[in-house]
Amino acid sequence: MVNAGAMSGSGNLMDFLDEPFPDVGTYEDFHTIDWLREKSRDTDRHRKITSKSKESIWEFIKSLLDAWSGWVVMLLIGLLAGTLAGVIDLAVDWMTDLKEGVCLSAFWYSHEQCCWTSNETTFEDRDKCPLWQKWSELLVNQSEGASAYILNYLMYILWALLFAFLAVSLVRVFAPYACGSGIPEVLSAAAAAGVSVAFGAPIGGVLFSLEEVSYYFPLKTLWRSFFAALVAAFTLRSINPFGNSRLVLFYVEYHTPWYMAELFPFILLGVFGGLWGTLFIRCNIAWCRRRKTTRLGKYPVLEVIVVTAITAIIAYPNPYTRRSTSELISELFNDCGALESSQLCDYINDPNMTRPVDDIPDRPAGIGVYTAMWQLALALIFKIVITIFTFGMKIPSGLFIPSMAVGAMAGRMVGIGVEQLAYHHHDWIVFRNWCRPGADCVTPGLYAMVGAAACLGGVTRMTVSLVVIMFELTGGLEYIVPLMAAAVTSKWVADAFGKEGIYEAHIHLNGYPFLDVKDEFTHRTLATDVMRPRRGEPPLSVLTQDSMTVEDVETLIKETDYNGFPVVVSRDSERLIGFAQRRELILAIKNARQRQEGIVSNSIMYFTEEPPELPANSPHPLKLRRVLNLSPFTVTDHTPMETVVDIFRKLGLRQCLVTRSGRLLGIITKKDVLRHMAQMANQDPESIMFN
Fold first, then answer.
1. Is-above-0.85 flag for pTM?
2. What's the whole-number average pLDDT of the chain?
3. What is residue 132's predicted lDDT score, i.e. its pLDDT?
4. Does residue 632 contact residue 603 with C-beta atoms inside 8 Å?
5. Is the pLDDT score of 275 beyond 50?
6. Distance CA 315, CA 682 (A)
């Protein structure tokens, strides 16, 4: 027997893995990230870079670049998110108007942009200009009549089908992960930047990421998420897509305070939001489950086309469903000023009124308001039903705006109702103390905003971040109490029917191993009750530190689908040495066969510092100590599962090993924890499927 380290020329070859090789430390798509391991690796890497920084100026520069690399990535995320949001805002405005007509001077102009450039546009007819023509005017030179209406109707449907087909085709061919909202796929800084530009709410975006998106959120991530959200908001503000120096289309400012008596309708809107959230989650999950378990899921393009056709056919006759949802929300949020031309502002004015523009008193509703009320009621029913079927289709689509639209329509109708009650019955005791005749008492737009917050909260179970987002939309602290009351009420009502928000429900439906921090575990079980292998199961698949060949390991990898393997001294002692990831073993063996001469199937693999003693004619051994995690997280077999669950949540573990006096007994993965929690909640643990 001779020491393999003494083999001629073998020292450098067998230690080649002391240097990094491609793809080590990466994860397959949808694999759980082991945050504790990644943090340890990052700390080791940073320590090495810092120690080398004193060797030369170049190493010092490299250390500075490494220190700023995370911030540079956040800067790029913010810049890209803001730029894309600006482009999307402009494109959506143009594509929405393209369904109704085209600008003759420049086809890439939206209706509003086209009329801006026209010298013949008057203020009274600011929505009409010779340069903008509807499709009936362009194709058959008719603007009125049944034939013009039918032609515009058909063009609206055709454009909607074309856009939907383009969206679903791009998802299927180029970006399958782009479908849905992206929220269930747990990316903190990106979510913060996205919400920041969607609502002009950088602080709300960070809080949303903290409250809803992340279960592992260290302080460093908080600061970087805030930076990304700030850069994204600044970039969008620089682009100024709406031409009003605002980040969102539906930014509003109210000038009338709210009164204590209005808390009652605000709370009623919260109840409505909670009930809507419960109805939506149950119906949408049932439909999405049917999509996954039937032939319907095999034809995503056909589903999108059919739903789009139905949506366009029903939406066109109603002006509140024909326009884009963002424009609808903007109109519902707006306070009725002297210059508003919306049907919602068709009040009967007092000709003797001499009030400032921002202090218009409550007035009796005109025919336009009553027409708008029944149109809004029909639009509300349509939005409630169609959103159930559209969320979850294979197109990039979120839930924030549709949910807000449902709540805004309900809130605006309630606000108009309260406003008219206050006007016609100002002598009632509920109005007598704060609503005098001729005063501006009720702001229907505020009710729309409260309703939007209530419905969004009922669907997502957001509270703190939701209130902050709405606060940043209005720009005033005065309306925080109504928003808080509606958000908390909607959450309480929705939680009474089920604790899951829509994102948690879709996470479970899609089989993501997500350990929700909101779920409490109070059962008195131990780690030994959950670990595998259990009684009657095959023994745990392990690697030994210096007695297995390359072929043995490749066979083990081929015959199992585990994400990693514990490494022990020997099968007899079962003394734990560390843990090796499956992906890194595969990559290490592949790279060794390509780069190191003499590595064959019967080469011994070892995880120790020094190679084992081998016969002189043995093939070169393969050193894999670099891929070994020498400090895997371990618990004893008598550790309470309550503690184990907290460890998985707070440290972001992928798995932990169970030992007794240093001897390996078993392993607990995050999926084992989730199945055990389901079992303790009287659910079938085998029904918990993971994708």
1. no
2. 83
3. 85
4. no
5. yes
6. 44
- Dist. CA 79–CA 193, nearest whole Å: 9
Please determine, for residue 205, whether its predicted confidence score (pLDDT) is greater than 70.
Answer: yes
Paired residues of 3 in beta bridges: 613
* CATH 1.10.3080.10 domain extents, the chain: 249-349+357-510
Nearest to 421 by CA among 507, 362, 349: 362
Contact at 8 Å (CB) between 252 and 333?
Answer: yes
Q: How far is CA 658 from CA 224, 451, 575, 646, in A?
A: 35, 50, 12, 16
Q: Is the pLDDT of residue 178 over 70?
A: yes
Q: Which tokens sit at 181?
A: 């909202």
Q: Is the Cα torsion angle 539, 543, 548, 550 positive or negative in sign?
A: positive
Residue 368 has pLDDT above 90, yes or no: no
Please report the pLDDT score of residue 17 as a whole number: 45
Higher-pLDDT residue of 618, 387: 387
CB 93 within 8 A of CB 243: no
Integer Cα distance of 393 and 678 in angstroms: 28
Residues spanned by CATH 3.10.580.20 within the chain? 527-681
Token code pair at residue 140: 């058959």
Neighbours of 383 (CB within 10 A): 23
Q: Taking a C-beta distance cutoff of 8 angstroms, is the pair 338, 360 a contact?
A: yes
Q: Name the CATH topology of 249-349+357-510.
A: Clc chloride channel (1.10.3080)
State the amino acid at position 530 in one-letter form. Answer: V
Q: What are the beta bridge partners of residue 664?
A: 659
- The reported pLDDT for the residue numbered 43 is 80
3.20.110.10, 1.10.10.10, 2.40.100.10, 3.10.580.20: CATH of 527-681: 3.10.580.20
Query: How many residues are recorded in the chain?
Result: 691
Tokens representing 131 are 């340069």
- pLDDT, one tens digit per residue, over 408-441 is 999 999 999 998 888 887 778 887 777 777 667 8
Per-residue burial over 285-311, b if 16 or more Cβ lie within 10 Å, else e, is bebbeebeeeeeeeebeebbbebbeeb
3-class DSSP state for residue 58? helix
| CA 364 to each of CA 257, 343, 438: distance values in angstroms, whole numbers, following the listed order | 20, 14, 11
Q: What percent of the chain has pLDDT over 70?
A: 87
Backbone angles phi, psi at 443, to 5 degrees: -110, 100
